[in-house]
Amino acid sequence: MTALTIIRTALASLGANKLRAGLTLLGIVIGVAAVISLMAIGRGVQQTITERIQSLGTNLLFIRPGETSTRGVGGGQGSAATLTIDDAYALQGSPFAPSVAAVAPELSTSAQLVAGRKNTSTTVVGVTPEYQFVRNFPVESGQFIGPGHVESNAMVAVLGSTVAEDLYGFRSPIGQNVRINGRQFEVIGVLEFKGGSRFFSFDDRVMIPITTAYYRLSSQRTAQGSISVQTINVQMQDVGVINTAMGEVATVLRLRHRITGDDDFTVTNQQETIEALQEATNSFVFFLGAIAGISLLVGGIGIMNIMLVSVTERTREIGIRKAMGAKRRDIMLQFVSEATLLSLGGGGVGVFLGWLLTVFLNGRSVIGSNLSQTAFNADIAILALAVSAGIGLFFGIYPAMRAARLHPIEALRYE
Amino acid sequence: MSDRSRAHERNSMIELENVTKIYQMGNLKVAALNGVNLSIGEGEIVAIMGRSGSGKSTMMNVIGCLDVPTSGQYILEGEDVGQLSDDRLAVVRNRKVGFVFQTYNLLARSTALANVELPLLYGNGKDHRRRSMEALDRVGLAGRAGHRPAELSGGEQQRVGIARALVKEPTILLADEPTGNLDSRSSEEIMGILQALNREEGITVIIVTHEPDIAGHTNRVVSMRDGQVIDDKAVANPRQAVVQGIER
Question: Chain B residues with CB inside 8 Å of A408's CB?
Fold first, then answer.
C-alpha cells in the first residue's frame, strides 16, 4: 500500500464517524492548547522578571553581611550587623578599588505609614543620594534625598508611586506630612512609576535618609557605634570588569574587617541574581507544562480507548481485508495511521488555539499578576506537535496490534 | 472415459493429501477435517455438499489459504502452502484466490467501485480504477459503480462481491453458499456468471452449497460428512443457467 492510499483510507474511516473523531480530537486539542498557552504564560513571566531586573542595571554588585550564629543556630544570610556605612564610604574612591564607580548603602525596614485617615504598610528604605543613580530611581516630582538630609538625619521621605497613590490619591503629596511608625516626616518627592507584579514591586516603597532610618526607625546598633547597613550596592565602571571589581571589593572589606579566616560578608552580582531567579522560574514553567502535559496524556488515553472500540466494531472489516490479502503490517499501518492522524490533527488545531490564547492573554492581567507579555515559542509548538504525533503512535500501537493479530476466519465470522 | 478421470489427467491445481484440521474447544478436541484426500484440476467447476458440521467450510478455508491444516499436505499449483506464515498466506490469497461469501461481506461505507478495488490495494499493480471498472463491467454493474452496498439489491451486492473476487484475475474462485441469501432469479444470475467465468476464462470454481439445484450447475459434486469425503462423482448433464436481464 502506498502512503497516499493509507492516509486516504484512514481519513475515510475517521470521516465515517465524525462526532466520535471530533470528540477524540478535542482531547488532544485541549491538551496541546493548554501546554502551549501555559508555557507561554510561564515564559512571559520569566522574561518579564528578567527584563525588570536587567532594567535596574547589570553592572551592580551587592554586598551583604555574613550570618549570625547563636549557639550553633544560623540566623541566615545577612543577619549579622557587620557592614557599616563607613565600609561603603571606604569603597567609594578607594585606591584599592578603581573599578568601583559609585556606592550606595541601604538599610530597609517595614513600617506603618499614616497620612490623614489613610494608612498603609510598606518597606522603608534608608538611602544616600547616590542610591538614586546606582539603583536607577528617577524622581517624578519634587526631589530625592540630598546630602544635607543624610547629614542632618532629616525627617524627610520620598514616596514610591504606589504608596503616594494609596495615601494621597491624585493629590500632590509634596510638602504633606506622613507618619512613619509614629514619627512625622515631610514628603519631598515622588518616584517615577517602574512597574512590577504584586509580589515584586519597586513602586511600593518609601525612601528616607539612611541616617534617619538608623537613628529614628531601627533598633540595631553596632559595636563600633557606626551605622550598620543591610546591603551596599556597588556600581562598577563597566560590566566587563565584574570579576576584578568583586575581587577589589572583597580585598578592601577584608582589610577593613581585619579578616584572616572566613569572610563576614558576601558579594553577589546582578547576573547571579538573574540566574537564581531563572532557576526558580524554570521550575515554575516546568510545573505549568507538566500540568498541561497531564491533560495531553488523558487525550492520548482517549485515543487508545476509541481505537480499541473501533477495532472491535470493525472486526468484520479486518476479516474481509485479510481475506483479500492484507498482511499484518497493512492492518497495523491502517490503525496506527488513524490514531496518528487523529492526534496530529488535534495537535495542529491545539497549536493554533494555543497561539490564539497566547495572543489574547498578551498584556492582560491573570489572577492579579499583570502579564505584560506572553511568549509564544515556535519550539514549544513544534515540540507539542511532535509529542502529540508520538502520543497517537504510542496509544495507537496496542489497538493496531490487536487488529493485526486477528485470525481472518474468526474475524469474518464475527457478528 | 468418464468426466472425472479426465479431470485427473489435467494439470492438478489443488491437491489435498490426508488433511486433518483439529480445533481445540476448551478441553475438547474437535476434528473438523479427518483425513481428506481431494484433487481438483485446473478449469474444473466443482460443488462441495454436506450438512452443517460436515467440514465443508473448514475445507474451503484450507483451500482458500485462510487457515492451515493441522496435519497432511496441501499443494496449491505445485507449492506446499500448508506450513506458510500468516503473511505468506496473505500474499497467496491476494494473488491466486478470489472469495465470494454468502453474506457478500462488502464494506458498507464504501462504494461498489471502492469495494472492488480493495484486493488491488494489497498488491503491487497499477491502474486500480480502470481494472475495478472492468471487473464491475464483467458482472454487468458498471452503471452502479458509485452506489453503496445498501443502495443495491442482494443479487447486485453479490455481483459486486464476484467483481471483487475477479479483479486480481485469480486462478481459483471460492464461493461459500453464494446464493444462500438470494431469491431464485438472482441465484440463477449468479450461477450464470460463475459458469461463464469457468467456461470463458478457465477459472477453477469451487462452490460450497447444500442446494442440489445449485450443485446441478457444476461438473462434479464432492459430498462430505464428519470431516471426510464420502462421495465424489461427475454430473452427467450440467444445467446451464438461463441468464437474462443482466444489463451490460
Answer: 66
